[in-house]
Amino acid sequence: MGLGRSIRLGRIFAHPSGRLCSVAVDHFFAYQKMMPPGLENMPATLEAIVAGRPDSVTIQKGAALACWGPFAGKVPMILQSFLGRMEESIDDLIALPVDAVRMGADAYATCAFVRGSGEVAHLGRVAKLLRQAHTWDMPLVLHVYPRKFAADGTPSISHHPEDVAWAIRCAMEIGVDLIKVPYTGKPATYRQAIGRCPIPIVAAGGPKTESVEAALTMAAEVISGGARGLTVGRNVWGFPNVTAIVKALCAVIHDGASPADAMRKAGL
Known about the structure:
Blueprint: H1 3-12, E1 20-24, H2 42-51, E2 56-60, H3 61-67, E3 77-80, E4 82-84, E5 91-93, H4 97-102, E6 107-114, H5 119-135, E7 140-149, E8 155-157, H6 161-174, E9 178-181, H7 187-194, E10 201-204, H8 212-224, E11 229-232, H9 234-237, H10 242-255, H11 259-266
Parallel strand pairs: 1-2, 1-11, 2-3, 3-6, 6-7, 7-9, 9-10, 10-11
Antiparallel strand pairs: 4-5, 7-8
């Protein structure tokens, strides 16, 4: 690994615990046709997130150009590039690795969906982006999601351990620097799915939970299952008290606090 990649990854994994508490605000075309309420006022949302001191924030290019300036240097930035949806009605890029370099990002992120007829096209695109990113010594973070298909062909994300393990293996074979993959729902099965991969793995925050405590419980389970951390979106800015939730997540991920203790210390 080149010095540039080592420095950038070192900033993302700077906490003494060696783990990652990351927040994502890159919920654009991949999620729905309209922005969720928590992301309507991006400057205010970012201010609340950064005040909680996460280890990184993943953001799309336009939002970063318009809103990230006041927070530059305070928290590492990961530039998201993917412009797509799971059913592949949209499948393109909004940024390239050179954009991450020019914007001062600490990593370049993209997405791939595996299982299904589009699997090879997704992985082939990531391989090409990786060559570009590594030319600049820019780490590539792959958000990789295994799919399952209903009888009518409609896809959804699979959390089955075998599918998660397959997604991880696909990412490893490409040679990415950090893998984000869904949680299987149980620490034991997650450990089994991710345990053989030498590349750092963090869990996706997943769908919005019913409560903050449920989100913190999932974070604790993910760490118990052997992941290096968690990247959370809706379970941060989808609730009130964003700053306190980030602090509580950091307490669970970095300090091993119980969800109840983390909530109490964060004032939730």
